[in-house]
């Protein structure tokens, strides 16, 4: 399995939301729905508070429960990569994948009745481009690439910077990393 | 403090602010699927144990209800699908890791087996209906064949009926993302509850005194088993990880406390248990018909509470300040 990862630097993210707008524009996401979003996480005791901004989306898990629990094979790993896509033509709208996602609400109910989600902009990856959210980031805090390539930017960042993934204890093996 | 706040708007349908993808349609299906399993199991067991004299209704008439109840349940399940025209996609593949896929195929297999089970007793149970079937040569031959292999059919029914009754619970327990469902006991709990509602149905519909007594005793045993399984699943949640302990709070002071303890445990288990004990010991028979009604209400309540509380249980929780109503206050431009 080819593993694509997104690496997001929480130290340089300013929470502007451009990634969210870029995604909606690029993927023509229907009104009222979002495939990505920004979280502001604050922790500590006043006055010693720390805040991190996280641009969040589907984690394109290597061991994705939304894929294993889909009854029709609509939810699948694209071309032997970790990129999780939904084939609208096979989707019955049973919503099992929504319940299966431990990251809670990482799939979107399309108004036409099938499940829609972040695709890591696989149509852009095929052309050698970065996902729309990564390309549009004004602070260049988002990075995308292959974990299998030892010289990739994402591998370099993960080797040299402290990082985390969200709730690794779910066992889903997520592929969106946050530099901390 | 530790606060996670959504700073971009997110109001995804059925997902925000809390998961609400499955409502009464799914709960009703889980209830009716469980009851169908119980109906088929008891019809088969009465034949295997040769109880025709004691329980004529369950032996030769009950089985006809199985496809009727199951079809009603599958109708509500269909209502839940968001992409209804693509329902056939359940049957263009088999996904071995998905209990829902197993369930879809179990449902398809259960129908013909249920028809064989009905045919094997139709001449005894529904003689006027049987006369229609007998008018066709193929119908007569089928009924002859089913009658000859009545016991074998009954034995074959049991594993598929058990699969139907147990898979719904396994399906929910397979969602590791929903800690409230994530208990291995859930499958057994649903099976026993489904059998209990079917036993209650027999008590309501059977005319013969001996049959009502037999199924009241069966139901009482099933209620005891169900209480034990409820306790086990609560222990399993209480002794789990942080997410499981949080999930348990929804029935221990949280939003579903009342419906779980009063509607399911109180009205659905404890009161019918007391009523059935009183009836069996001969103390009071005046409320005999109330117990099975309460058992059926409790069976539905269990499914509804589990569906609701499971969706509330989660690994993540974000606060959101977004309100769709605020959009209405923006000046409208043409």
What features would you describe in this structure?
- The complex is a heterodimer of chains A (180) and B (334).
- Chain A has 180 residues and is of the alpha+beta class.
- Chain A has helices at 18-27, 65-68, 96-100, 122-125, 132-136, 153-160, and strands at residues 4-9, 37-45, 48-56, 75-77, 84-86, 108-109, 115-116, 142-146, 163-164, 176-179.
- Chain A is built from 6 helices and 10 strands; from the N terminus they run βαββαββαββααβαββ.
- The radius of gyration of chain A is 16 Å and the shape is globular.
- Chain B is mainly α.
- Chain B has a single domain, classed as Formate dehydrogenase/DMSO reductase fold, CATH 1.20.1630.
- A two-stranded parallel sheet of chain B has the order 1-2.
- In chain B, helix 1 (24-48) runs antiparallel to helix 8 and helix 12 runs antiparallel to helix 13 (290-312).
- The model of chain B has no long low-confidence stretch (mean pLDDT 94).
- The interface between A and B is large, with 55 and 52 residues.
Give a short account of the largest sheet of chain B: 2 strands, parallel
**Main sheet of chain B: which strands, in order across?**
1-2
Oligomer: heterodimer
Strand composition percent of chain A: 25-35%
Structural class category of chain B:
mainly alpha
What is the gyration radius of chain A calculated from CA atoms? 16 Å
Total domain units of chain B: 1
What is the molecular shape of chain B?
globular
**CATH class bucket of chain B:** Mainly Alpha
Largest sheet, spatial ordering of strands of chain A: 8-1-10-9
* Protein structure class of chain A: alpha+beta
What ranges of chain A have pLDDT less than 50 throughout 5 or more consecutive residues? none
Question: How much helix, percentage-wise, in residues of chain B?
Answer: 55-70%
Radius of gyration of chain B: 23 Å
Instruction: Give the count of structural domains of chain A.
Output: 1
From the N-terminal CA to the C-terminal CA of chain A, the straight-line distance is 27 Å
> What helical percentage do the residues of chain A reach?
10-25%
